[in-house]
Write a sequence for this structure.
């Protein structure tokens, strides 16, 4: 039960954070006028018609989506040795158009929905081959576009090479769009990795292995205490906790791969469109396995074998504590948003001072406690002191969590507007890092010292200059912040 509880809490925090913190998905409609050229001799690839600097100014125009026969493309192709029918032109043809990609799409996952194509379609973005979907007319084609293929803030050239051996040809049915975000925005889709796969819901397993079979597609795949075996397609991210991620030659992952307390094994032909990160394990990548993003490997001295259940139980108990404390931090920040924001501001402006004051506070706990006990009359105050210290430690970590959460979500271009959610996410990230033996303990000590120091400097978050106003020499009171001018917009 505790494994399922951990998974539910993790999923809840992640889903709520994404719901409130992820920028709305943006879509560019690609329907309309495109440049078009038939390629009866199949020379387009040789002459590099897909290249960004190729001159297609003399090509004719065509409307998308629609078949090319209905738009006057009726010349007979004598080079097509396939079946002949009432439609004269059958063979290869090319589409090209320029589209401006917004600057705020930088670093985001971008997908192209090509709609329905008769019969095969290959997509190139700025000369880079994105993918090829095989014969299946009645299904939309979804292509995950690598980040390195895009030029946000600048014109981008999209080239599409279509092969139609018989019947009506072209991009026959929409929608034809570019979308930043997730392929979850599409229904009944295929991907550039396997045209016969259908997108299903997220797949999860607890205490058992999860196998994505060949021909199967899911949005996200998550396993807790089991192995994740991918023979099919994962449209977004794949992750395993206390288990391995194994990607077979037919396996494709459009997003990131994460393994905590396990290994990532990519066999010959495996394809990962995002980053690969392992914590407490290693990456085993075959020679022909492809990773489009970065790789991060952090080894830990924890036994991940099936015999090392005690170590795994310890890891999960630490994860349980991390999740519960993150939930508590979210609640505290929701109740005290002003104090939490003041603490985060103090950490941002005076990290070294916060650490120094927090360290000094730790050193004074014992002598102050002894002093109160010796005076006898101060014994009842010891309990109050300990309550204040506990509250200060917790509130300090919540403030530090807000600082971390805001910085991390801003860095990945997914800012979280809610103070409570940002604080909870930041605390969760701090706790997860602190699970790492030796180094994690040191990070935890530094984090608690900084947070505790910020609490002292701000008087439990009442004022950013609380300490200096009361104990500083010649310190002037802090003027109130000026109101922004009417009509200005804060960015």
């Amino acid at each position: 039960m505790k494994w399922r509880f951990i998974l539910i809490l993790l999923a809840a925090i992640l889903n709520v954070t994404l719901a409130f913190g992820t920028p709305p998905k943006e879509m560019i409609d690609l329907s309309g006028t495109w440049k078009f050229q038939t390629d009866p001799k199949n020379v387009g690839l040789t002459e590099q018609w897909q290249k960004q600097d190729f001159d297609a100014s003399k090509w004719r125009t065509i409307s998308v989506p629609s078949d090319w026969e209905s738009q006057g493309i009726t010349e007979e192709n004598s080079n097509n040795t396939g079946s002949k029918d009432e439609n004269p032109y059958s063979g290869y043809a090319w589409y090209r158009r320029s589209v401006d990609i917004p600057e705020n799409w930088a670093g985001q996952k971008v997908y192209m929905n090509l709609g329905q194509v008769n019969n095969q379609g290959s997509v190139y973005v700025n000369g880079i081959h994105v993918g090829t979907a095989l014969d299946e007319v009645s299904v939309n084609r979804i292509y995950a576009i690598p980040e390195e293929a895009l030029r946000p803030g600048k014109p981008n050239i999209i080239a599409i090479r279509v092969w139609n051996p018989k019947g009506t040809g072209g991009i026959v049915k929409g929608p034809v769009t570019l979308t930043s975000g997730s392929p979850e925005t599409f229904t009944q889709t295929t991907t550039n990795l396997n045209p016969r796969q259908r997108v299903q819901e997220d797949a999860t397993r607890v205490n058992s292995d999860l196998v994505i079979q060949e021909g199967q597609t899911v949005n996200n795949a998550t396993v807790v205490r089991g192995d994740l075996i991918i023979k099919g397609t994962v449209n977004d991210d794949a992750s395993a906790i206390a288990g391995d991620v194994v990607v077979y030659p037919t396996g494709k992952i459009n997003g990131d791969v994460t393994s905590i307390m396990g290994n990532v094994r990519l066999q010959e032909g495996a394809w990962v469109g995002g980053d690969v990160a392992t914590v407490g394990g290693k990456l085993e990548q075959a020679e022909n396995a492809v990773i489009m993003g970065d790789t991060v490997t952090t080894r830990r001295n924890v036994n991940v074998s099936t015999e090392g259940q005690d170590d795994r139980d310890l890891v999960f108990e630490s994860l349980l504590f991390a999740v519960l404390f993150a939930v508590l931090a979210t609640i505290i920040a929701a109740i005290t948003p002003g104090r939490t924001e003041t603490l985060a501001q103090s950490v941002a402006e005076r990290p070294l001072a916060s650490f120094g004051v927090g360290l000094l506070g730790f050193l004074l706990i014992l002598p102050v406690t002894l002093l109160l006990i010796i005076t006898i009359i101060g014994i009842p105050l010891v309990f109050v002191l300990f309550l204040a210290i506990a509250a200060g430690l917790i509130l300090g970590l919540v403030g530090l969590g807000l600082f971390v959460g805001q910085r991390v979500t801003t860095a990945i271009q997914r800012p979280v507007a809610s103070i409570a959610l940002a604080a909870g996410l930041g605390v969760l990230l701090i706790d997860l890092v602190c699970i790492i033996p030796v180094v994690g303990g040191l990070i935890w000590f530094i984090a608690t010292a900084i947070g505790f120091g910020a609490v002292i400097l701000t008087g439990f978050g009442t004022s950013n200059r609380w300490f200096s106003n009361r104990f500083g020499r010649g310190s002037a009171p802090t003027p109130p912040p000026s109101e922004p001018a009417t009509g200005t917009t804060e960015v």
The radius of gyration is 29 Å.
